[in-house]
Amino acid sequence: PTLTLVEHNGTEHQVTGEIGQSVMQAAMFASVPGIQGDCGGACSCATCHAYVDDQWQAQVAEAEGAEADMLEYASERRASSRLTCQLVISEALEGLVLHLPESQY
Ligand code: FES
Question: Using one digit for the tens of pLDDT, what is the confidence trace for 34-85?
Fold first, then answer.
């Protein structure tokens, strides 16, 4: 599936990931600036933070559990905030649009 990650400055990146891979892994592999993934996907750094596009909020679940707790440390958290290491790529996410925060810190 191919996803679109939009940087804070509006630059769009098309990222193709494997099913079962996290969005963070796919974004890091594609060297998308703005996704840091400092903890390697262990849900313990909040530097893989992104916002789910308005059009996609019905299809993508809100953060819960450990992810929601970790988002407390993310900069400018919103209702649409997710940690992309906890967002697993599936067929259903084909075309997903995510927006990156201005900064991960
Ligand atoms: Fe650290 Fe997602 S990569 S919380």
Answer: 999 999 999 999 999 999 999 999 999 999 999 999 999 999 999 999 999 9
Cβ 73 under 6 angstroms from ligand 1: no
Distance of CA 4 to the CA centre of its chain: 10
Burial class (CB in 10 A: 0-12, 13-18, 19+), 50: buried
Q: What is the percent of the chain with per-residue pLDDT over 90, rounded to a whole number?
A: 99
Residue 52 C-alpha to ligand 1 middle, in angstroms?
16
Q: Which atom of ligand 1 is nearest to the CA of 67?
A: 4
Q: What ipTM goes with this model?
A: 0.99
Query: Is 30 near ligand 1, meaning CB less than 6 Å away?
Result: no
Q: Is 37 in the pocket of ligand 1 (CB under 6 A)?
A: yes
Structural domains of the chain sorted by starting position, each given as residue range(s) with its CATH number in brackets? 2-99 (3.10.20.30)
- Phi-psi domain of 64 (left: phi exceeds 0; alpha: psi -120 through 50; beta: other): beta
